[in-house]
Amino acid sequence: MSTVVIDVGALSADDVVAVARHSATVTLSHAAQEEITRSRKVIEALADDVTPHYGVSTGFGALATRHIPTELRAQLQRSLVRSHAAGSGPEVEREVIRALMLLRLSTLATGRTGVRLETAEAYAALLNAGITPVVREYGSLGCSGDLAPLAHCALAVMGEGEVRDADGELRPAAEALAAAGIAPVTLHEKEGLALINGTDGMLGTLVLACHDLRRLLATADLGAAMSVEGQLGTDAVFAADLQALRPHPGQADSAANLRAVLADSAIVASHRGPECTRVQDAYSLRCSPQVHGTARDTLGHAELVASRELAAAVDNPVVTLDGRVESNGNFHGAPVAAVLDFLAITVADVASIAERRTDRFLDVARNHGLNAFLADDPGVDSGHMIAQYTQAAIVSELKRLAAPASVDSIPSSAMQEDHVSMGWAAARKLRKAIDGLTRVIAIEILTAARALDLRAPLTPAPATAAVVSGLRADVPGPGTDRYLAPEIEAAVQYVASGEALRAAESVTGRLR
Q1: Sign (positive/negative) of CA torsion 446, 452, 453, 455?
Q2: What's the whole-model pTM score?
Q3: Are residues 189 and 238 in the same domain?
Q4: 123 is catalytic
Q5: What pLDDT, on the 0 to 100 scale, is given for residue 393?
Q6: How many domains does one find in the chain?
Q7: Alpha-carbon span 263 to 243, nearest angstrom
Q8: Which residues contact 410 (CB under 8 A, 6 or more apart)?
Q9: Membrane-spanning residues where (predicted)?
Q10: Terminal-to-terminal C-alpha distance of the chain
């Protein structure tokens, strides 16, 4: 098992994926430990100051005018976490919670939050023990941080609330911590606030989504290539010189993938001569690089924003490098919320064009000689008719999920927090959208593979043939109607696991 060292500098996106998804362990660097200790001394020096300091000797939000006496400050921090652990709804996925905890620990490691070293080490201990606090779907407005999700994690560090242990069993936090030999933390001045005031939930979701979408967009190019081939389309429009006339980098990469995947296709070559009377293909085939490329360029922007956020120290107030304790607005989730919404829009668009390519296979007026719905005996058999319905239903849902959350602000905390980002909501819907896109691409590949088999004795390109061969390990070729849902799920796993893309790359080399 790998170990991620958390330093004063930024985590990488790969670090987040390793800890969140693959259970890599974490450790604080010596430099991080020193910085945490140094900034804690600043907070402790303010504890007895007669001047109020937000989060140290005052209440929170709209209650910040209340000065809290020394003897009540431990209760202040406990009360903050308990009251803010107010989530509701279904449990959030383990990998999202682990990403959230890792990113909060990364901010603690910068020394800008003023927590004690033992508090930061408790987060590392929970991650390493595989203990995952139970976080609920609803509760974050994406401003003042992902308050409720982070509070549920802080509650577990205190030995309260519910967690899932390394085996996934639901247990009281106190019991799970005791079993792992982890002592619950008693929070001191400023610590409760430092543990809940971050954009870590939405950022963790963004990093995981970017990782998945990078692979999915290459797989979408693969599905498009199979559709072009199976519908007797042309690869001429993907020529590099034509794409260079509109120099978007994502478009160029997508077209390069299509050229690589379609190379040496006997099916494409069979209709390249002067006898072919088709002037040009439909938009869903011809414009695939333009649509997929737009999604790629959007993803590149989102990855840039994520890299900046991974280098950020988000808390309020913060301990500055020169030892001041200052209020700020860096907890506002707007930068992350906007790109989460932007990605949901492009995901819906990529899925939409994939569904249109799939539909063309099923219509005898447009599929160039294949049976209606690719059925073995149309009328007796329905072929892939309802697979397209499933695809269309998902695409329709993705269009609804593309409506931006980040423009919807509901004031909170007695109008002190009067503009919020809704970044957590944007993150939750993008996660659903990524799953939907995976399924739409899988159905296109499932349908295109059937069409390529039906083009025999013409043979597909070596790359697409490899994809079909890999799929056939779990899904039989054309024939009379079968129970279709398991075949769709097998195709979904083929795409989601990356196996479909790896099959193509075994021929082409790494696709872009």
Answers
A1: positive
A2: 0.95
A3: no
A4: no
A5: 98
A6: 2
A7: 17
A8: 141, 420
A9: none
A10: 29
